[in-house]
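Sanity check

After download, print the first record. It should look like this:
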Amino acid sequence: MLLAFAAVGCGGSDSSSAPPGGDQDGAPLEDTSAADGAGDVSIDDTGGSPADGTTGDAESDTGSPADSGAADGSLACDEAGACPFELSCCGGACVDTSSSAAHCGACGTVCTGGGEICAEGKCACPGPFSGVCSGTCTDLTKAPNCGACGTSCATGTSCVAPVAPAAPGCAPGCFADLPQIVVPGAPVRVGYAISWGAARSIAPASGDRGAIHFDDATGKIASMLANVPAVAADAAGEVTRIQGLVKPALGTGTTDVAVGVATTSHEGHTGAHTTYAVARATTASDLRDAVAAAVLGGAVAPPTTKVGTSTTFLVTLTTIYRADVKRTDVMVAIAPRVDADSRTSATILRIGDLTNTTAMAATTMADGFGCQLLAGANPPKADILWTVDTSGSMSDDQNRIGNAGKGIFDRLRLAGVDFRMAVITAGSQAPNLDTPGFTWIQGTDADGPNELCRRVTYAQCPLTAAETKTPYPMAGGLEEPTAAAVLTHFALWDRGKKGETNPDKKLRDGARFVTFHVTDEPGSNDFTRYFATKTDPQTAKAWGTTYNATTLANIVDYFVRNQIITFGILPAPAAPCTSYNVYDLPRSPI
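Expected structure tokens:
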């Protein structure tokens, strides 16, 4: 939940133009507590009674401006109608027109709306999204006053309050406002978007399990969100068990893409993501129904209209173990591979929505939020590391990066990213951050683009005068960018964990770690020179001595576990890889 707060007034003894307790018209400039024995008089007091607060002797009062309307205890205007401290004389009293509800911005301007305050000389309702409706301050983040008085939202939409200064408005509902349906025979419910297709309840005769099916004709996705009794004793066992049901059910032509990538649901339960490829002429709906039959323990009714006809498919499976109730969520989304791999269609986004666990929750959970929003108040933070192959064949590639430096910096700056960059040799041994001294290029550095060029090129940067800078040294074969990313991240992470105070030698709090892997060599260098013989530095678990699905999952898990965003300038075959090939290692974590 994102909240915005507006400070509407504060007391104190500072020397600002507003009197202490400035929300009261004509408040005294000094303390009037009982300790004083009597109320304070004005600054030009000549002996009048403290109790009556006038500025002259009672006997000689002639009705001067100093006494012509100021309430007892307030500061009166002087005989010339003037006030100190940049206050204004209104009706004989000195008031702060920047905060007075009776004299807001000018004498006599009254804030009349129910609940209005005077802020900076203007009448306004408190809070970033409020206004006067029917004479009363009203919350404009809720219908029937969404963004403006009298604005209701149509069916299927709700009033969404973004981060100030953007205005609230009607938009398609988020989880808490979406249609929801309880999974038959299970203590969970599904919140879904109508774009996924009609929700169909699947209730096997056993009565202790069930699923919700969707057939999305636009995205060409057939999906299942199911919940079944657990059989294994823990999450790892359930992940393996469900994989053992799903893969055989998909039938001939099924191969592993990524197996058992650990994840944690939004409710804190653990499990894993698995992806399969299927090469066979069929439909996404038929494949989904086959999986449903295996998971639910019996044939299921097919949809009225099947979706996703193709000869190749991508199957995304998420398994989540609910240890508290000994049950397991099974989320499956299946689509033609050409659509699932496309970055220009909605398919990949909907697959994520279906399988990232956020669509399912325990029926006992209350709706605690309306929408997830990106707030601009705190700019995104990134620590960006280039792991650069420094072998002789890479000089042209290094120059290309150097030439693009200004464009890279400009785009990050325009996007409002708080970033810094570092460049290190693509080695395969732990870097020495102290010698010669690891440093970052700050995103605010006016010479940053040129400095990136100097550091990323092993020879002369083509954009600057003669210089001798090179990527930061790292021992190894000089052609292992994936290994370098892991080892450098770990070195910075470990130093921070141990209390490092030098900001160059640790990760920044709140920053995402981003790596650019740069090489023209195959992944066999990364694998044979590091991963095949070493262990995960955080877990001490072996990566794997043979390059296969398990080894790749172990490598990818490091990047997923540490939320590292990966990019690369790497060799890429024309066609997608169809089997596990060590050549593809630098690309696979990306």
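If your output differs, re-run the checksum step. Summary of this record's structure: The longest strand covers residues 270-283.
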